[in-house]
Task: inverse folding
């Protein structure tokens, strides 16, 4: 089935937040933000701004009737700064006017006097000053202390990896309309309608039943709208409550880039120990996560870094520790992979360090340590249905890696200006929210008596194709045409208490609930047909009833009408909660993931050793989709995730100066992959596997895992540099921008 949004997207007919028809009298809201990263606010002068033409009001912290608090995990984040600011871009006031232009004029007239305080932007510095979001956490397996003495080789090092701007094409935005009795409806470009509902209620001081959140679709979220879509929705809701008028906000790109958090930069220290046959016996890693000025989702992101600290490798003795460090940057947040990529980057850096020191290929170490059936990871989960070796070997064989290696070696021996580099990137990614409590979902299905069907789930469509997969479930269960089914917006009145669409689990969780609802309705409809076709096996397909595999005269439409006239319920609401998962934080042990996703990618890059620029010749992937329910959509997720991961590793460089000002604050200074920088060839092969019972229709979650193939891009470039400048002592510090590549090409050893 092609993506059900494809036609409307191409024609520009799809409705995003800013396309919603505005009600007459709609006002505009503009957040007014801090221009210093850490300060006490001595005074705010709004007088001249309030007199500006078109300005209706300017709201400050004191205008909040409920709590001035939007922290999701910890209550440490005010909606509006009150007395002090902790990062540049923190919102101090909300300007409301008849047009956005008037608001921008007024913003220039607000005068804030600050008493500036010291600014910290570096996570290690924050840790030294004990500026932590929460106490550190540590995962432990085996006994590293005694393992070191059994190692033949031990290496230590450091790796650094920068953040990443989400760059969803649709910026943050929300539109609030007051309803009667103090209730309110807010359209929000959010991955988490319930999170928005909860915070609107909390800040406005009203119960959740007075708040309706509606989300049609997002022009991308990538984690950036899991928690950080909330403040803007709360702001327009607050203004609407004050003014009894509809209020809208749709952010400009530079405002969005400046005010919102990004992927977390991490710095890590590692120590890795191996035996003579290249088995990794021990690994210790300490991660310093740059959380920014408030917790946001950092504790959960840090947890996933620890879960993925050994990537796809079995290491019997592990200590993985992490600090969530509080700095004066916008709070960093969820981003595709959710801390997993940073955990994997550090272990890959450690393996490369060991390989280079020993004069072997990193691939030899990677291959010798891939996880197998029954292996225990540092958090106690025993792996089953493991496909790591299968994916690796299939990849090597199907793409003929041996010839590729020879071809590259030959190329490098014959060329001086251009050098090629290869890298192999295996992945192993856990599927489920790491917080067990969040792994549940609901679906609501109505069959109308004309035979048409409408579906609501807690899942949000953000371009990943969720709605198409939901539609497939309905169509396949009922045996009806897609034109009979409509997937409705995600709405908190129809489906309540939802988890955000995140953790790649959107299709699994909502799809399983939807399948349960559809199956319950199917049973009821079959019972109605059974009255006519007694003792026969009833099936529904091609919009017809089949009895004992023979097509009857009874159509889907007539069957539904018959059920209705017999007063059979044609509505079903189902609830699904992932079985088998559990986790004990006091022991840091458990079985947090329903299953893992595996795969292997081979990167080939050519570096221009005169310019420091590079081109990716190919990325060859073997990926474990289980039994993909929609190969076209899933291949799209692999391509998009891969390229997004490669961007993070190569071109995309977030720069804050030491005063916490975002220097890479627009698309002129922040470079993302474009059609010229994507690999010339991307091959994707589906690994033949059984799939997993806990995956929807055995079709494994696909949203985040492929991003981590991108890590190989960094190490492929490094290998090309090594071919040019073999003795250079290179740091590991992503992204590998052309500037950094050039410096490393000519770095003295
Ligand atoms: N694909 C598109 N086109 N747009 C997105 O915003 N988000 C990614 C991934 N793929 C995203 C995407 C992230 S971060 C997640 S967690 C998953 O989609 C969420 O959707 P799923 O759970 O349905 O896979
Ligand atoms: N992944 C993504 N988003 C999340 C998670 C997770 O594990 N936990 C809470 N939000
Ligand atoms: Mo994705 S980072 O879990 O929204």
Result:
């Amino acid at each position: 089935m092609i993506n059900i949004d494809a036609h409307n997207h191409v024609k520009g007919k799809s409705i995003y937040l800013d396309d919603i028809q505005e009600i007459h009298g709609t006002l505009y809201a503009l957040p007014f933000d801090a221009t210093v990263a850490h300060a006490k606010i001595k005074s705010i002068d709004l007088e001249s701004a309030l007199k500006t033409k078109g300005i209706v009001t300017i709201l400050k912290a004191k205008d909040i009737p409920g709590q001035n608090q939007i922290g999701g995990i910890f209550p440490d984040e005010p909606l509006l700064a009150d007395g002090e600011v902790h990062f540049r871009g923190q919102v101090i006031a909300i300007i409301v006017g008849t047009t956005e232009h008037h608001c921008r004029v007024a913003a220039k007239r607000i005068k804030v006097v600050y008493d500036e305080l010291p600014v910290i932007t570096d996570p290690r510095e924050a840790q030294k000053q004990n500026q932590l979001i929460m106490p550190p956490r540590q995962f432990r397996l085996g006994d590293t202390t005694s393992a070191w003495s059994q190692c033949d080789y031990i290496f230590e090092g450091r790796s650094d990896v920068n953040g990443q701007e989400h760059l969803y094409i649709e910026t943050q935005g929300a539109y609030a309309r007051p309803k009667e009795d103090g209730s309110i409806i807010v359209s929000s470009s959010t991955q988490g309608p319930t999170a928005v509902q909860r915070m609107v209620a909390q800040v406005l001081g009203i119960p959740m039943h007075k708040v309706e959140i509606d989300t049609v679709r997002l022009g991308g979220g990538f984690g950036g709208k899991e928690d950080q879509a909330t403040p803007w929705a709360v702001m327009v809701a607050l203004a609407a409550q004050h003014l009894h008028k509809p209020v809208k906000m749709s952010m400009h790109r530079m405002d969005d880039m400046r005010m919102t958090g990004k992927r977390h930069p991490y710095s890590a220290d590692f120590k890795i120990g191996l035996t003579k046959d290249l088995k990794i016996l021990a690994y210790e890693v300490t991660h310093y996560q740059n959380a920014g000025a408030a917790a946001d989702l950092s504790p959960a992101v840090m947890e996933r870094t620890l879960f993925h600290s050994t990537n796809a490798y079995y290491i019997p003795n592990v200590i993985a520790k992490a600090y969530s460090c509080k700095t004066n940057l916008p709070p960093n947040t969820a981003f595709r992979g959710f801390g997993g990529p940073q955990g994997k980057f550090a272990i890959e850096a450690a393996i490369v360090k060991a390989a280079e020191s020993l004069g072997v290929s990193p691939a030899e170490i990677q291959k010798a340590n891939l996880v197998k059936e029954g292996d225990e990871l540092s958090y106690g989960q025993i792996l089953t249905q493991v496909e790591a070796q299968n994916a690796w070997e299939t990849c090597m064989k199907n793409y003929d890696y041996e010839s590729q290696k020879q071809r590259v070696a030959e190329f490098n021996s014959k060329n001086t200006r251009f050098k090629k580099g290869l890298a192999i990137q295996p992945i192993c990614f856990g599927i489920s929210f790491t917080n067990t409590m969040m792994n549940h979902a609901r679906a609501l299905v109505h069959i109308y008596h004309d035979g048409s069907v409408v579906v609501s789930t807690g899942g949000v469509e953000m371009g990943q194709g969720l709605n198409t997969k939901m539609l497939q479930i309905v169509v396949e269960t009922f045996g009806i045409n897609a034109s009979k089914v409509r997937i409705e917006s995600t709405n908190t009145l129809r489906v309540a208490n939802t988890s955000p669409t995140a953790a790649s689990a959107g299709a699994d969780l909502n799809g399983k609930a939807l399948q349960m609802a559809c199956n319950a309705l199917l049973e009821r409809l079959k019972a109605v047909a059974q009255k006519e076709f007694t003792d026969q096996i009833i099936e529904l397909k091609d919009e017809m009833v089949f009895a004992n595999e023979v097509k009857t005269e009874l159509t889907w439409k007539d069957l539904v009408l018959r059920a209705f006239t017999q007063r059979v319920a044609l509505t079903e609401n189902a609830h699904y909660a992932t079985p088998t998962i559990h986790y004990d934080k006091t022991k840091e042990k458990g079985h947090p993931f329903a299953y893992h996703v595996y795969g292997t990618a081979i990167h080939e890059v050519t570096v221009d050793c005169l310019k420091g620029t590079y081109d990716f010749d190919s990325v060859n992937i073997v990926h474990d989709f289980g039994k993909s329910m929609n190969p076209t959509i899933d291949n799209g997720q692999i391509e998009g995730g891969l390229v997004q991961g490669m961007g993070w590793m190569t071109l995309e460089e977030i720069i804050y100066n030491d005063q916490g000002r975002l220097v890479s604050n627009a698309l002129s200074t922040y470079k993302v992959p474009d059609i010229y920088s994507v690999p010339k060839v991307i091959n994707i092969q589906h690994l033949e596997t059984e799939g997993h019972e806990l995956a929807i229709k055995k079709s494994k979650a696909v949203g985040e895992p492929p991003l981590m193939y991108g890590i190989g891009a960094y190490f492929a470039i490094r290998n090309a540099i090594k071919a040019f400048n073999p003795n250079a002592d290179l740091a590991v510090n992503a992204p590998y921008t052309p500037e950094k590549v050039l410096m490393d090409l000519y770095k003295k050893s």
